[in-house]
Design a protein that fits this description.
The structure holds 2 protein chains of 2 kinds.
Chain A: H1 14-42, H2 46-53, H3 66-80, E1 86-90, E2 99-104, E3 115-120, H4 137-145, H5 151-175, H6 179-183, H7 192-205, H8 207-220, H9 222-225, H10 228-233, H11 237-247, H12 266-277, E4 282-288, E5 296-301, E6 313-317, E7 323-327, H13 332-345, H14 351-380, H15 391-420, H16 428-449, H17 452-477, H18 482-487, H19 491-516, H20 521-524, H21 528-532, H22 537-540
Antiparallel strand pairs in A: 1-2, 1-4, 2-3, 4-5, 5-6, 6-7
Helix pairs in contact in A: 1-4, 1-5, 1-14, 1-15, 3-12, 5-8, 7-14, 8-13, 14-15, 15-16, 15-17, 16-17, 17-19
Chain B: H1 2-31, H2 39-63, H3 67-91
Helix pairs in contact in B: 1-2, 1-3, 2-3
Classes of the chains: A alpha+beta, B mainly alpha.
InterPro entries (chain B): DUF3649 (IPR022109)
Organism (chain B): Caballeronia jiangsuensis
Protein name (chain B): DUF3649 domain-containing protein
């Protein structure tokens, strides 16, 4: 504080430095952050999206019994994943229509951990006959590891961007003198002011959420981002294992004895877990060394039943079926991490809380989007010739169009591809993803060649059309049109179709606003000189 | 030459923020091992705290008046962390 009274011509106020930091940290990571925010937001309805993308898998009226499903899936894995040292599969919950499963590739080279995965029909226990698709899982994975790049690079990139976000949040708060008053200020149709007010309102409304989601996002991958403590502290495999057991319920296979032994009935173990936690509160079964005398079965507690991702499971001897151990607590720091992790994923939410997560997260997406747009709005007024901006401005403007409006087009195209790609296409799940990226790339090219305003309007209308006709396409290509979904009380399908219309309306409203928008540069054009000499104080509030 | 003089301090701050900040956060995560708790819990505490240290370091680097002050501040915070971390390294084992 002493420094403030110490006048120095070049020193700038902390608010100004923080404003610059906010602007640049926000801009540089902004495009990726926008995509992370939007794909992350829709991932709160990951399971519902997956259901919609597998229309052959019928609407589940009643939840199948977890114990019976576990027994069926184990039998199937015994044939298709025989010789694997680790199997793992989800148990049914009310939000999923298929059983996700993965297992270690049998006979993989030592030290190499490669996995195979499949989705099973809970009723038959066999591979689902539904179309091959990654479903909502694609948006979820893209959200933190992107695609077309090694998973580790993607996660580092996501971490770097999340760190930029955290810095942007803190510096954004310091920048604001009147954070409370700003929340209630909204000046419509005032150009830059309106963008600023929108950005402030969206940010302040969700501030605790945005800070929480950014920090907890880093926490989900912290063992990768900050490995130094663990590397210093743990020197033996046993120590490392003790650490892993604080974080994960995935039991690791020990050394197999080589002697064959049949697997005890898994349904009985799941029943024991149901007796402990509740009928629908069992989450996952992991089996190590099946078929060997050293087989172990871990039945873990469901994520929906508590606000923590810390491991809680019952460990059974795979041969005798006897309960060996019940793990129901971890250390304080590990539990803290488990809670933070769960807060990020929101899987404990009931329907209402899930919608709240979705809406606030959407506000976060809009916060990043309005921030990106504001960068250009603020600078356009200062351009010597707005018709011919310098390269940096031009690039930011175009990237904004492709990363905001273009992403909506690409994400919806992914859903169109899900309905339109022939079922027999090889690697169909990847083909859907290729459509997503091809369309996204096309929107970027489009943004490069068209005048900025036209590009905004055209891609927003394109997104509107794709969203609005998606329920129609669904009605034409599946036997689950909207009216039938409503009639049968299938609120996942009906809700999905209706949400597409809600999103279409949102995009249409944006397109109309952009079309009607007259940049305030035009009337003020003659006073451009006067504007440029305006006191810098105005900047401070941004 | 003049560009270097003009942009040097800013570049210095960016390096201090991104790499200096990460180094400080990493150091803090190791120093946390000196905390009186079991190893896995200390390791996790260090990890959880490190991102907050990182964010604060970046804010500090851009909040102060000069690049020199920015670096000085990072070093001053690093000293006690280094002492704590070195007790861990030297001890080889922690309780």
């Amino acid at each position: 504080m002493k420094r403030a009274r110490d006048p120095e011509p070049k020193a700038r106020g902390i608010r100004q430095s923080m404003s610059d930091l906010h602007t640049w940290a926000g801009l540089l990571a902004g495009w990726i952050l926008y995509a992370m925010f939007l794909t992350g937001t829709v991932s709160y309805f990951k399971d519902e999206t997956s259901q919609w993308m597998r229309p052959e898998q019928p609407h589940q009226r009643d939840m199948p019994d977890a114990a019976r499903v576990a027994q069926r899936v184990t039998a199937t894995l015994g044939t298709i994943a025989a010789g694997s040292s680790q199997w793992s599969f989800d148990l049914p919950d009310e939000r999923t229509s298929v059983i996700g499963s993965f297992w270690r590739t049998p006979g993989a080279a030592a030290g190499k951990r490669t996995f195979e995965s499949a989705s099973f029909d809970p009723v038959t226990g066999q591979r689902t006959s539904a179309r091959e698709t990654l479903g909502g899982e694609f948006f979820y994975r893209f959200h933190f590891q992107f695609f077309y790049m090694p998973v580790l690079w993607g996660r580092w990139l996501a971490g770097l961007c999340a760190m930029f976000m955290l810095v942007a949040i803190v510096s954004g708060v310091i920048t604001h003198k009147k954070i409370f008053a700003d929340f209630f200020t909204f000046r419509w149709g005032k150009g830059q002011r309106s963008w600023l007010d929108a950005h402030n309102a969206l940010s302040v409304f969700g501030l605790p959420f945005h800070a929480m989601i950014t920090y907890t996002g880093l926490v989900t991958l912290m063992t990768m981002y900050m490995p130094w403590g663990a590397q210093t502290a743990f020197r033996t495999p046993a120590e490392r294992e003790a650490m892993t057991s604080q974080l994960s319920a995935f039991i690791q296979p020990g050394k197999p004895s080589g002697q064959k032994a049949g697997l005890a009935p898994v349904d009985a173990m799941v029943r024991e877990a149901q007796a402990r936690w509740g009928r629908d509160k069992v989450g996952r079964v992991t089996i190590t060394n099946p078929g060997d005398t050293t087989a172990r079965v871990a039945v873990s507690r469901g994520e929906a039943s508590r606000v923590s991702m810390s491991p809680q499971y019952m460990l059974f001897d795979g041969v005798t079926g006897k309960l060996i151990d019940v793990k129901d607590s971890v250390g304080g720091a590990a539990e803290t991490r488990g809670v933070l992790y769960a807060l990020h994923l929101g899987r404990f939410s009931d329907l209402q809380l899930r919608w709240l997560y979705f809406i606030v997260s959407l506000a976060g997406t809009a916060m990043v989007g309005t921030g990106l747009v504001m960068w250009t709005v603020k600078r356009r007024q200062k351009l010597p010739d707005p018709a011919r901006p310098h390269l940096g401005f031009w690039l930011v403007e175009r990237l904004n169009i492709a990363s905001i409006a273009g992403l909506s087009v690409a994400m919806t195209s992914f859903l169109w591809a899900n309905r339109l790609l022939p079922l027999g296409v090889a690697a169909r799940d990847n083909a859907e993803i290729n459509v997503f990226f091809a369309v996204w790339g096309a929107t970027l090219l489009h943004a490069f060649v068209r005048p900025a305003k036209r590009a905004w309007i055209e891609s927003l209308w394109l997104a509107t059309a794709l969203l609005a006709f998606l329920p129609v396409l669904n009605a034409l290509t599946t036997d689950r049109p909207l009216w039938r979904s409503i009639e049968q009380g299938d609120w996942v399908f009906a809700g999905f179709d209706l949400m597409m219309w809600a999103f279409a309306a949102l995009h249409a409203a944006l397109a109309l606003r952009v079309a009607r928008h007259r940049p305030c540069v035009k009337p003020a054009g003659k006073r451009a000189g006067a504007r440029a000499t305006m006191p810098e104080r105005e900047k401070e509030s941004a | 030459m003049s560009t270097i003089v003009r942009h040097g301090p800013l570049a210095s701050r960016i390096v201090a923020a991104i790499f200096g900040g990460y180094a400080l956060a990493a150091l803090a995560s190791v120093a946390a091992l000196a905390l009186p708790m079991s190893k896995p819990q200390a390791v996790l505490t260090g990890m959880l705290a490190s991102f907050i240290v990182y964010a604060c370091a970046v804010i500090w680097v851009f909040a102060v008046r000069s690049a020199r002050r920015a670096w000085t501040g990072l070093v001053i915070v690093a000293v006690p962390l280094l002492l704590a971390a070195s007790s861990v390294w030297a001890g080889g084992r922690i309780s």
